[in-house]
Specification:
The complex is a heterodimer of chains A (182) and B (194).
Chain A lengths: L1 H6 L7 H23 L3 H18 L9 H23 L24 H15 L2 H11 L4 H8 L3 H24 L1
Helix pairs in contact in A: 2-3, 2-4, 3-4, 4-7, 6-8, 7-8
Chain B lengths: L2 H10 L10 H39 L3 H24 L5 H5 L4 H17 L1 H6 L3 H13 L10 H41 L1
Helix pairs in contact in B: 2-3, 3-7, 5-8, 7-8
The chains are: A mainly alpha (182), B mainly alpha (194).
Chain lengths: 182, 194
């Protein structure tokens, strides 16, 4: 069913209606995407608003060139990459590739956090350290896009996508194994 | 539950998702963005226009033919550089272009555009200024009617030398920036074809 929605070509819908449908379906994903790019909480909502604004405007030009899902993720990630480039010019730091991260970092203040929010925090801390392409694959993988869809959104080759997904899976399995050992 | 399933559940089970922004707010934000771009463009034109105006006023006030010719050439050069900056400097628009292209293709196209602008800047940015600068700075040497005043030969040489140093610095800076962009493009190509 979700697949049918993704194949929808809302050319008959108005710009506002097409945006509204997409935003309702992917609002949560857009928010998570923004948190994956922006560590500063005060900036997250600003980025979310920027993505929604670009998305709303983009539906003036959407004619079913790709699935709505790919369209939304492409716009979301492109706006986020531009946003992060601008903020990194002000505050440069070192980003790393998935191959150099061996485990999810532990979060200090975990006393009150639930197990799930702890895992989310650790995931976010890892994502924030990643280079753009690795970050995009990890975020899209967490949103349960298939390898083919990830390739369609990112433009990475099939080989590059599968290598990165494999690394993400190893990283997550590792984190659970260590949790279990404690 | 496998580690993978647990992670995906944890990632998506987020109760802190804010409500969607109203469309009126998006319209306003978009209009603000457009106004900001227009304001920036306007300031760019005003800056260029002022430069041309100052050159024209100087040419009008100083009754030396060679200076007037040099000023007219320089004003024309500034005009050409401004026009080229506008026509070559328009970046891709996220709403218009970014949904149609995969992320890497979009980023690559934008980097290629920026690199081409920088790489060709000698032709469209520096070259149009050269004839005017050449006439203005060379006047003491080529125009017998040029009032020498208290200028020594050294003074007359220092001015063109300074302008040449600035032009060479701009040229080298642009080439260096273009090389940096090319290395980012190469990184993207390595990702796309690996």
């Amino acid at each position: 069913m979700a697949q049918d929605k993704n194949r929808l070509k809302p050319t008959s819908l108005s710009q506002d209606d097409a945006y509204h449908l997409a935003a309702k379906e992917y609002g949560g994903a857009i928010e998570r995407l923004a948190r994956g790019y922006e560590a500063d909480q005060s900036q997250v909502q600003d980025l979310v608003q920027d993505i929604h604004t670009a998305l709303w405007r983009s539906f003036e030009y959407f004619e079913g060139q790709c699935s709505v899902r790919s369209w939304v993720y492409r716009i979301g990630h492109n706006v986020a990459v531009s946003h992060i480039k601008a903020s990194r010019r002000a505050k440069p730091g070192v980003l790393v590739g998935l191959e150099t991260i061996t485990e999810l970092p532990s979060i200090d203040d975990q006393s009150k956090a639930t197990e799930e929010s702890q895992l989310r925090s650790r995931l976010l801390a890892t994502i924030h350290r990643l280079k753009p392409a690795d970050r995009q694959v990890m975020l899209l993988y967490l949103e349960e896009l298939t390898a083919e869809e990830i390739g369609d959104v990112t433009g990475l080759s099939a080989g590059a996508v599968s290598t990165r997904i494999h690394r993400v899976k190893v990283l997550l399995a590792e984190a659970f194994t260590k949790e279990g050992d404690k | 539950m496998t580690p993978e399933e647990a992670t995906l559940n944890s990632w998506k089970d987020d109760s802190a998702i804010a409500s969607l922004p109203p469309i009126t707010e998006l319209r306003e934000r978009s209009a603000r963005f457009t106004r900001e771009i227009r304001r920036r463009n306007f300031l760019e034109y005003v800056g260029g226009g002022l430069a041309i105006l100052v050159i024209a006023v100087v040419a009008w006030l100083v009754p030396i033919d060679s200076l007037r010719i040099g000023a007219a050439l320089l004003a024309g050069g500034v005009g050409i550089a401004l026009w080229q900056l506008r026509s070559r400097g328009t970046p891709l628009s996220p709403p218009l272009n970014s949904g149609q292209l995969p992320i890497l293709d979009y980023q690559r196209q934008e980097l290629v555009r920026q690199k081409d602008v920088l790489r060709s800047s000698t032709i469209w940015y520096l070259l149009p200024l050269i004839p005017g600068l050449f006439v203005l700075l060379g006047m003491p040497f080529i125009d017998p009617n040029w009032p020498k005043g208290d200028d020594t030969l050294l003074d007359q040489l220092v001015r063109p030398a300074f302008v040449i140093v600035v032009l060479v610095a701009v040229y080298r800076f642009n080439k260096k920036a273009a090389r940096k962009l090319q290395s980012e493009i190469d990184e993207i190509d390595a990702l796309r074809y690996s």
